[in-house]
Amino acid sequence: MKFVDRIEETIRLKNVLSSEESTFVVLYGRRRLGKSTLIKRVLTDNDIYFLADQSEEQHQRALLAKVIAQIFPDFDKLTYPDWETLLRAVNYRTDHKFTLCLDELPYLVEQSPEFPSVLQKLLDEKSLKYNIIVCGSSQNMMSGLFLDYTAPLYGRANVIMKLAPIKTPFIKEALRLNAVEAIEEYAIWGGVPRYWELREGCSSLNDALWHNILSVNGTLYEEPAKLFQDDIKDIVKTSTIMSYVGSGANRLSEIASRCNEPATNLSRPLRKLIDLGFLEREVPFGADEKNSKKSLYKIADPFMSFYYQFVVPNRSFIELNRRFPIEQTMDLHFSEYVSKQWENLCRDSVTGNLINNVLYNKAKRWWGTIINEENKPEQLEIDVIAESLDKKHLLVGECKWTTQENGRLLTAELLRKVNLLPFAKGYTIVPILFLKNSPKNDVGNTMLPSEVLELLK
Questions:
Q1: Average pLDDT along the chain
Q2: Nearest 5°: CA angle at 434, between 430 and 437?
Q3: Are 401 and 385 members of one domain?
Q4: Do 276 and 148 fall into the same domain?
Q5: What is the tens place of the pLDDT at every residue in 297-312?
Q6: pLDDT at position 329 over 90
Q7: Which of 226, 314, 353, 385 is the most exposed place for a label (fewest CB within 10 A)?
Q8: Is 339 helix (H, G, I), strand (E, B) or coil?
Q9: Rounded CA gap, 428 and 344, in Å?
């Protein structure tokens, strides 16, 4: 698959590795994001790349020595009793600056807990002649090693990079899709390049789903459990919470009720899932982020969202290879599922961007009860709402992922709802329709998938 995005990360790595002084670089993030691929793209033939495993420490040193011997002949002829001896031996052998990459550092540290202190000692001496890159998928351990002020390596890194999923527009380029296809596929695979590679190996989206996800032999059939193993001890409880949220239990009280636990017991596991990027806590536009009692929890990652909506409830059918009920479920609910992901993308496209020459703050959703024109309570929801930076404009949006809509009717209904919101008074209202296809009776306020993808770059 074509290598896409990662432009800023590549430039940053190349710049720091090419500096005159030897540097120490930390790169981490969840599995499958292409951390190793990114590193290998910036390394040269004179650099050393070592992938740690879960074997005991003496064996790991022997394996690393064999890799180093490709650059420094006969380096593996000696036995190195500890890590300090090995790293100093490398320093002694080199007469030029190069880069040593230790990938999956958490595996190495599990077997050699003293390694961070050894590395701290060498870095503090400022005598190393080579760069060191360390990389890992355990977000907990990596952040603990380098971001916890009590850790030996705190403050030692020249650069710390947490790799995020690739932005939505690049799936269009990587898989050669049109804008609508790109959004539908992103709703399943998210911004994870390894998933894109698996998709590319199949002739169609449907084939990719059945081959990789909706089969007991699929590469991604047990993917969430594998991701949780890196950072979470109680995988059963975590999977249970994710399942309930994925099936529509979005309020803390609902999640606690289904888990049969007090809500206070769930604060830590929910916080952990948010920190790892698997869940997010949503509050309505204008509500206080910390103290709002109207907060909702939802799955933040598209692949995880798809998995817990379509895989977990259908496990029995998948295990028995019963395709028909799963196909029926997909036919009934897939478009609705994509529409939710489309809403997220539309909000992201507005956030921090210029729309009609007006710059907007973070876009959110709003929901609540208002008193309508007939003086009766009415439940309302606004898909996209954002205040301009100058606080003069209020962008409000309606998102639809359907074949064709009536632009005039949608706009009129959107404006009706907004006029009922007390906090909307005093703004210039900017109504936008975010639609899958061009509407009937277009009133010039429409944004289509291609335009949204452009804003997401």
A1: 94
A2: 135
A3: yes
A4: no
A5: 999 999 999 999 999 9
A6: yes
A7: 226
A8: helix
A9: 24
N- to C-terminal Cα distance for the chain?
A: 20
Q: What is the pTM of this model?
A: 0.92
C-beta separation of 368 from 329 below 8 A: no
Q: Hunting for tokens 């210039």 — which residue is that?
A: 428
| Domain end point (choices 144, 162, 180) | 162
Please check whether residue 219 lies inside any domain of the structure: yes
Nearest CA to 261 out of 249, 273, 272 is that of 249
Tokens of 360: 């907007």
Return the H-helix or E-strand segment holding 433.
strand 428-435
Q: Residues 96-117: what's their mean pLDDT?
A: 95
- Give backbone dihedrals phi and psi of 276, rounded to 5 degrees, phi first: -85, -5
- Note whether residue 2 is domain-resident: no
Average pLDDT of the residues in 22-49 = 94
The confidence score (pLDDT) of residue 362 equals: 97
Residues 238-255: what's their mean pLDDT? 95
Q: Does residue 1 sit within a domain?
A: no
Question: How far, in Å, CA of 349 to CA of 326, rounded?
Answer: 32
Kindly tell me if the per-residue pLDDT of 4 is higher than 90. Answer: no
Q: In the block, which residue shows the tokens 């291609």?
A: 450
Q: Which of 127, 144, 162 is a domain's end point? A: 162
- My answer on whether 192 and 283 are in the same domain is yes
Let me know whether 158 and 259 are in one domain. no
Quote the tokens at residue 443.
């009133």
C-beta separation of 28 from 102 below 8 A: no
Paired tokens of 86 = 């090995």
- pLDDT score for 290: 85
- How many folded domains does the chain comprise? 3
